[in-house]
Amino acid sequence: MDLGIILTYAPSLLAGLVYTLQLSLVTALPALLLAALLAWIRLRSRNPLLQTLARGYTDLILGLPLLVLIYVLFFILPEYGLTLSSPLVGVTALTLYYGPYLAQVLRAAFAAIPPGQFEACSALGMSRWQSFRHVALAQALPVALPPATGLFIGLLKDSALLSVVSVEEFMYAAKQAISESYAPLEIYLAVALSYWLVTLAIDAAAGAWERRLTRHRIP
């Protein structure tokens, strides 16, 4: 094993890792907005058409591999006159894919709150926003945070699939380095270690946030 190869390609690998993190963070916001919309429809909407569309879309995504969705956006849409850049394909695919998964987490977290608490908020004269912020969100967020963190870590790792459509993320940089160095062991070892350290950092940060949110609870 030649560690000098890792040092040689460290700048390009680091650039790919930074791009992966940026791509994941940029995707997280629209995925969360989509998830919130789907969760609201499933929990609050009385429109049967919206309910059917939300349920059908969720069922479709839950049974669809992410790679297939990437291929549809990158290879099939141009045949119908809609061509997206590789980074946009990446953000769109990850958003469409992880939105329903995150919606399931949000729906379960909010559905677990007893309805009587909202009736109590109304009796106390609290507005809907106050009830949501101080009662619903305060209880749902600690419940949703651990599985949502797992989904974000999954999103981060699944971004490696975007290398197949030439998105210049971490795995793409690794493939480029391997094609030049012919040293897959060293490069993939560096990639694996980097993913592991990043996911550990994300999990630690989410754990600290969860402890802060639940510090008022009696053990």
Q: Can you put this structure into words, describing what you see?
A:
- This protein is an all-alpha fold.
- It is 80% helix and 0% strand.
- α2 (48-62) crosses α4.
- The protein starts with a helix and ends in a 6-residue tail after the last helix.
- Its main location: membrane.
- Keywords: Amino-acid transport, Cell membrane, Membrane, Transmembrane, Transmembrane helix, Transport.
- It is a multi-pass membrane protein.
Q: How would you concisely characterize the structure shown here?
A:
This protein is mostly helical. Helices cover 80% and strands 0% of the residues.
Secondary structure blueprint with pairings:
Layout: H1 3-44, H2 48-62, H3 66-76, H4 86-111, H5 115-123, H6 128-158, H7 170-181, H8 184-213
User: Strand-residue fraction?
Assistant: under 5%
Counted by DSSP, the helix tally is 8
**Quick check: average pLDDT?**
90
How many domains in all?
1
CATH topology: MetI-like fold
Overall 3D shape: flat
**Which structural class should the secondary elements be placed in?**
mainly alpha
CATH architecture: Orthogonal Bundle
CATH class: Mainly Alpha
GO molecular function, one term: transmembrane transporter activity
Transmembrane segments: 20-41, 53-74, 80-98, 135-156, 187-209
Main location: membrane
GO biological process, one term: amino acid transport
